[in-house]
Amino acid sequence: MSNLALAVRDSSTMLRRNLLHARRYPSLTLNLLLTPIMLLLLFVYVFGDVMSAGIGGGDRSAYVAYLVPGLLLMTIGSTTIGTAVSVAMDMSEGIIARFRTMAIHRGSVLIGHVVGSVLQSVASVVLVGAVAVAIGFRSTDATALEWLAAFGLLVLFALALTWIAVGMGLVSPNAEAASNNAMPLILLPLLSSAFVPVDGMPGWFRPIAEYQPFTPAIETLRGLLLGTEIGHHGWLAVAWCLGLAVLGYFWSAATFARDPK
């Protein structure tokens, strides 16, 4: 069997393993999903009218449209925390050491985690998106091409954050440490343009919101879903995604290749 065929076969096996784990133990994914859903309901039904007036909207529906793109990306960040925890558990419980002794493609373990996490992220985004639609979110101005581009951005963003989360899981001594190390993936959206425009933030705080991966990705997704201008945010979002994906891949591969002490 060729190396490529071996890699595909073993990666598929590891993917099935991770999806079975997610199906048998759904509590972690569901707990991480609660954060964006609760924030969505809180900001729409408690702060919706006030926040809508703050961004120049006429009613609560204007803020729903503004809020949802940011929360979709926040959902991806939340889901990938579970990936970091899962990788750390595999490392600390000895299953990785056993895989190293077996005649399997070495990179298939990480590929299975990454592909499984991206699929879970997409499923989580669909669930949060369904809740958003149920409470009034509409994307009537987006074309079919813009919808396709929005989906591509979500998948690319999920891939980038997943590789970073895998690296965090590999360097963490246990699941608790992995969860703490991956916490920036859910905190950064809170410091971005997800909830309020960057222009409305204090001057000293704006650089924190502007120069991070979530803000350009949120503004790009918002423009695609609402049919508004994207400006320079589009290429910045793609650059951030590609940069984080490459960084996470090489970090994870180098860490995984080290022989255990």
From TrEMBL:
Compartmental location: Cell membrane; Membrane
The keyword Cell membrane appears for this protein: yes
Domain spans labelled ABC transmembrane type-2: 27-259
Principal localisation: membrane
Mode of membrane association: Multi-pass membrane protein
Family matches, as Pfam families: ABC2_membrane (PF01061)
Regions crossing the membrane: 25-47, 67-89, 110-135, 147-171, 183-205, 234-257
Source species, domain of life: Bacteria
Keyword line: Antibiotic resistance, Cell membrane, Membrane, Transmembrane, Transmembrane helix, Transport
Family that this chain belongs to: Belongs to the ABC-2 integral membrane protein family.
PANTHER family listed in its UniProt record: NODULATION PROTEIN J
Identification of the protein by name: Transport permease protein
Annotated source species: Streptomyces prasinosporus
